[in-house]
Specification:
The chain has helices at residues 46-49, 62-73, and strands at 2-8, 11-18, 21-25, 30-33, 81-86, 92-96, 100-105, 115-119. It is mostly beta strands. The strands form 2 sheets. A 5-stranded antiparallel beta sheet has the order 4-3-7-6-5.
Length: 134
């Protein structure tokens, strides 16, 4: 999950939850991707971890170890989402300031819902409002 916007009481304004492949790149190269979630520091290998695979520990994988210093280096000049695109194959692209891009690419074998935007408050109302009358 990627979080965006102002942080308030441990919660952010927006997030995108991903259940498919993704990578984060700058203008010239891929910097990190979803495959890095499974390159673990805290366990010798996925096969050896078996049913005890734990991905929720801070800095447990290469992805965490990339983003911790990356985000720290952008505290004074935070990244902003400047464009959001979705194509006919449901691929999602988020362009950021600083020439960074998050590319999300679902494949046919994956579940129907492969990503979703979350917003606080929701971008779309959870119910249709009553008509306004005077």
């Amino acid at each position: 999950m990627f979080h965006f916007g102002k942080r308030d009481n441990g919660s952010y304004d927006h997030a995108v939850e991903l259940q498919c492949s993704w990578h984060f790149r700058d203008a010239s190269q891929v910097l990190i991707g979803s495959w890095s979630l499974y390159d673990l520091f805290t366990q010798p290998s996925i096969e050896q971890a078996g049913d005890h695979l734990e991905l929720d520990h801070p800095l447990a994988n290469y992805c965490d170890r990339f983003f911790a210093p990356f985000l720290e280096s952008h505290l004074a000049d935070p990244l902003f989402v400047v464009a959001v695109r979705v194509d006919e194959d449901n691929a999602l692209t988020l362009d950021f300031s600083g020439d960074y891009t998050l590319e999300v690419f679902p494949v046919d074998e994956e579940p129907e819902e492969v990503w979703r935007f979350l917003s606080r408050p929701p971008i779309f109302p959870s119910r249709i409002p009553e008509p306004f009358t005077k």
